[in-house]
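Course exercise 7: structure representation. Students receive a sequence record and must write out the corresponding structure in token form. The form below is the worked example handed out in class, using LHPL6 protein (139 residues). Read each field label carefully; the graders check that inputs and outputs are placed in the correct fields and that the protein name is recorded exactly as given.

STUDENT ID: A-19
EXERCISE PROTEIN: LHPL6 protein
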Amino acid sequence: MASSLTCAGVVWAFLSFLCAAASCVGFFMPYWLLGSQLEKSVSFGTFRRCSYPVRDESRQMTVMVEQCGRYASFQAIPSAEWRICTVVTGLGCGLLLLVALTALMGCCVSELISRTVGRVAGGIQFLGGKCSCGEGLGT
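STUDENT ANSWER:
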């Protein structure tokens, strides 16, 4: 198996992949905020939620739906801030995953990653990490 990476590059590739996978799993899980509502455990993330209240018109009361699901549409996400967070975090995870998979391919294919490509990929990873951490929102 030919490689265009040094030993440090191989370690970087595998750590990059693990970090990208952890970021993507965190993005898709609805456990960003945990709490309770109507004596039920509630959690939600940027575009998924678990145990949420709905209005039951037949009984004229609010009931809790005890299941997990995503919002029906992008506009159904509760606030503009959460919509922005969904887009920025998704883009950050996408960038991290793209660079990590390219780096892993560099472990198997010789002459795939040059020093310049490695530096650019590291910069893209830095940008993706800043986006997925919310730092790109001016915080």
